[in-house]
From TrEMBL:
Originating species: Polarella glacialis
Residue spans crossing the bilayer: 30-50, 142-169, 181-202, 270-288, 300-322
Official protein name in the record: Uncharacterized protein
Keyword Membrane attached: yes
Assigned keywords, A-Z: Membrane, Transmembrane, Transmembrane helix
Domain of life: Eukaryota
Length: 355
């Protein structure tokens, strides 16, 4: 029963993903898809090269130099920035299509190509073996860093435009659960952007060295720099406050998609419950970072809040994913034949998911 249910969900996901990609390729937001595909391909290529370099396998040398994952010249930034922005583009595609404030084609082109510039520079600097963040050591590095900041600024502006557009002038007939996911997710995305801006300002701000930061800075920079460093505030890893709200939109959209495939589930309420947990999680990350506390080793109180938030989101998914089983159990409790409500429901959904 469980395997059959899982297989059904996977078929639905595959079916809807294929249809969604085909529609996306024909929509004004197609530049986001084109760049997302390039980011994903780059991620797979660099990840494979990095793994081979670590194991010293085959063609990995000298194409990929053996280097650290973390650090200012490590491979984490080009890999993570690419795949992370590809995921964000999925949300922005849905957001631009669901609002009527900003021109969809113009907004998509600006966001897609400016982000391609940003990630391209990060990747180029990794290949050159120099830092991409806060690197103004030469004229070339300073110019590339400035161009990267411009690309990031346009991406951030696009996120705020998408959030404001959907809030102020949403498109008609957006399903309720999807509307909740976009409304909460996009503003959490804007918070992630704001944290990124704050981290940039923090990195350029002159600060005195703090001995308690030395160990964390040396780990984050792969031994390059002790305190002060832009990666660490007290014992807090600053990027975690940026990461926690960054991909909430995708999580909530996936939950909203699942509720749309199940009868008898209050989709908007389920998504709203998960959104409250995500807001709490983002707030916890900001609070701990401001206090200089490490989210990876929280206090008992913070750990309980963290667990409660994650458990709430997980419970929302479990509630929706097992809903077909509840429908079948309810049908059997009513002593109807198995080909009754469950059979009709399953047949209709299977037909939809199998195309």
């Amino acid at each position: 029963m469980v395997l059959a249910l899982l297989s059904w969900w996977l078929r639905c996901l595959y079916h809807d993903a294929v249809l969604g990609l085909r529609r996306w390729a024909r929509e004004p937001e197609w530049p986001l898809l084109a760049v997302a595909v390039a980011f994903t391909a780059s991620f797979l290529f660099h990840w494979l090269g990095y793994r081979l370099a670590i194991q010293r396998v085959g063609w990995s040398a000298p194409l990929f130099a053996l280097t650290e994952w973390e650090g200012r010249t490590g491979w984490r930034k080009p890999l993570v920035f690419g795949i992370s922005n590809a995921m964000v583009f999925v949300s922005l595609r849905e957001a631009f299509a669901a609002q009527q404030l900003a021109p969809r084609r113009l907004a998509s082109h600006l966001v897609a190509w400016s982000t391609a510039l940003e990630v391209g520079i990060i990747t180029l600097q990794a290949w050159r073996g120099v830092g991409s963040h806060f690197n103004t050591s030469t004229t070339l590095d300073a110019s590339l860093y400035g161009a990267k900041l411009c690309g990031a600024a346009l991406l951030g502006l696009g996120c705020f435009v998408a959030a404001a557009g959907f809030t102020l002038w949403p498109a008609p007939a957006v399903p309720a659960a999807k509307a909740v996911a976009l409304r909460h997710g996009l503003w959490l995305l804007c918070i992630a952007v704001a944290v990124g801006v704050g981290q940039a300002i923090y990195g350029h701000h002159l600060r005195e060295a703090r001995p308690e930061e030395d160990a964390s800075c040396l780990v984050a920079s792969a031994g390059v720099a002790a305190s002060p460093c832009y990666e660490i505030h007290g014992q807090a890893i600053v990027k975690l406050a940026h990461f926690l709200p960054l991909h909430v939109t995708e999580v909530l959209l996936l939950l909203a998609w699942a509720t749309a495939h199940v009868d008898g589930v209050l989709g908007a309420r389920v998504v709203r419950t998960a959104a409250v947990a995500c807001w709490s999680l983002a707030g916890l990350g900001l609070w701990l970072t401001a206090r200089g506390e490490n989210l990876k080793s929280p206090s008992l109180g913070a750990g309980l809040i963290l667990f409660a938030c994650l458990a709430t989101v997980l419970a929302a998914f479990v509630y929706v994913l097992v809903a077909p089983l509840r429908i079948r159990i309810g049908t059997q409790a009513e002593k109807r034949p198995d080909f009754g409500r469950w059979g009709v429901w399953a047949a209709n959904r299977a037909a939809a998911c199998n195309g």
